[in-house]
Amino acid sequence: MKTCSNGSYSAYLLSSLCIAFVIAVFVLSGYFDTSIRFSVSTLKYSIPLIELQSKVLSSDHDDNARAVRSARFTAGFSINSLRNQSVISEVVSSDPDDDHAQAVRSARSTTGFSFNRLRNQSVIRRIGKLSGEEKVERGLARARASILRATSGGNVSSSTTTTAAINDDGNYVPNGVVYRNPGAFYRSYMEMERRFKVYVYSEGDPPMTHHGPCKDIYSIEGRFIHEIEHGRGEFRTSDAHRAHVFFMPFSVTMMVKYLYQPLSYNLTPLKHFVSDYVRVVSMKYPFWNRTHGADHFMLTCHDWGPHASQGNPFLYNTSIRVLCNANTSEGFNPQKDVSLPEIKLYDGKVSPKLLSPPPENAPRPYLAFFAGGLHGPIRPVLLRHWKNRDSDLLVYEYLTKDLDYYSLMLQSKFCLCPSGHEVASPRIVEAIYAECVPVILSKNYVLPFSDVLRWEAFSIQIDVSEIPKLKEVLKAVPEEKYRRLKEGLRVVRRHFVLNDPAKRFDVFHMILHSIWLRRINVRLA
């Protein structure tokens, strides 16, 4: 009996050791990692951790999934690293509107049990506030979603009339046929006012940086630099990490004045200056290299602005270039570049004659008017066919002293706006001020603010080949259409006016809005 009892005991001990060894092997091999069981009072779940992870991170297209993945990565741990622990990780953000936190909270409720009941078994990991760059991108994502929702809305309100919109300067609401999508434009503009921030590099000294012409034909260049640097400042930020775009405030017009050798046609000094400027800011700050300049912009109205931008290949091909010379045959890319209206201010101000156009019913005895120098490929064609040939269609190369340029604009139904050496012409904006319907005679010209404005609702574009039939074409415009075109001019006028200080929806804000659209990469049409 004793021998038998000892043998049975030895066999039992050996069996126990074998079972323990097998269990240890399974544990070490991860066999039991696939299931973690929770038994908490009345709540019993059998939840495979891999299944829980796959539910929360179910799809690459799911915003919550992306947020949890991002939060998991940011917190510096992986669910897989907690495989053998009964641990649930919750990411808690200090921002109550944070999408990461919302996503994790949503995923937590989806699993069907209370985290509070598992508090003693859970590890709660906290992450700090989002970085400035993360907040910028998150805000842009929300703006995109808001704008895209508005694109299907059309007009802002069916009860908003064009006349009311014109008269109510304090709370202007875009509406009417002059806009491609009034609702989307209005939403985009409001998002811009709410969020958009510009960082202006401080590098460089006047007169070639932080300064520009505020008079004559390139005045828009200097006026924009002045407003963004010295205006009310609601769009400028001193915190570069919170900026949406970065402005390089050099003036090509001032470069031409101080660096260019007259009659040499050598633009190399301009390119070198631009190249040096980009090199300085790219070495001093991380922002240029982060995007190869895609969120940087330059602004110039000089004809040679596109050539100067060739000083850096990324500036030319990647950055936002705000140019008066918006010629697609010379590298202007409307998907990333911005067309800048050319505004000529002889003494820094708009002519008093154009500040208050005549009443709507005032007579306009002339069919059309043009006066200008003979340069570029289009004007010689115009002057060859119509110079001093018709008393109804007035075409001059130079006006005599007894004739006044703006008075003739105000007395004409149509104002001819042919391109000169370059595509842009200040006559377009002058015609808008005079409520003289612009007749665009140009090739490869991207008109300003055409993301938002329907130029066909307040101007006429005529192919250069039709210049010999110009009078016939203009005479064929029905009176009702002409009346609608003039109404359109009264609506869009505010978008081309330079104010000091700037006002909502004026040309300064429209330029910023064009840059904003390219930063968020949204088409309103």
> What is the first-to-last residue Cα distance?
99 Å
Biggest β-sheet strands, sense, barrel: 5 strands, parallel
Indicate the mean pLDDT: 81
State the total count of DSSP E strands. Answer: 14
Widest beta sheet: strand line-up: 5-6-7-8-9
Radius of gyration: 33 Å
Please state the overall shape, judged from the principal axes of the Cα atoms.
globular
Classify the helix fraction into a percent range: 40-55%
Tally of individual helices: 20
Strand content: 5-15%
Structural class: alpha/beta
Report low-confidence residues grouped into runs of 5 or more: 1-9, 29-127, 157-168
Could you please describe the fold and organization of this structure?
Keywords: Glycosyltransferase, Golgi apparatus, Membrane, Signal-anchor, Transferase, Transmembrane, Transmembrane helix. This is Probable glycosyltransferase At5g25310. It is a single-pass type II membrane protein. The chain crosses the membrane at residues 12-32. By secondary structure, the chain is α/β, with parallel strands linked by helices. The protein has four domains: 44-130, no CATH class; 133-193, no CATH class; 196-345 and 506-520, no CATH class; 352-496, Rossmann fold (3-Layer(aba) Sandwich), CATH 3.40.50. Helix content is 40%, strand content 11%. Strands 5-6-7-8-9 form a five-stranded parallel beta sheet. The chain has a five-stranded parallel beta sheet with strand order 11-10-12-13-14. It has a two-stranded antiparallel sheet with strand order 1-2. Helix 17 links the parallel strand 12 and strand 13. Helix 3 (63-75) packs across helix 4 (99-110) and helix 5 (132-150) packs antiparallel against helix 7 (182-195). The longest helix has 28 residues, at 2-29. It is globular and about 120 Å long. The termini are far apart. 36% of the residues are buried.
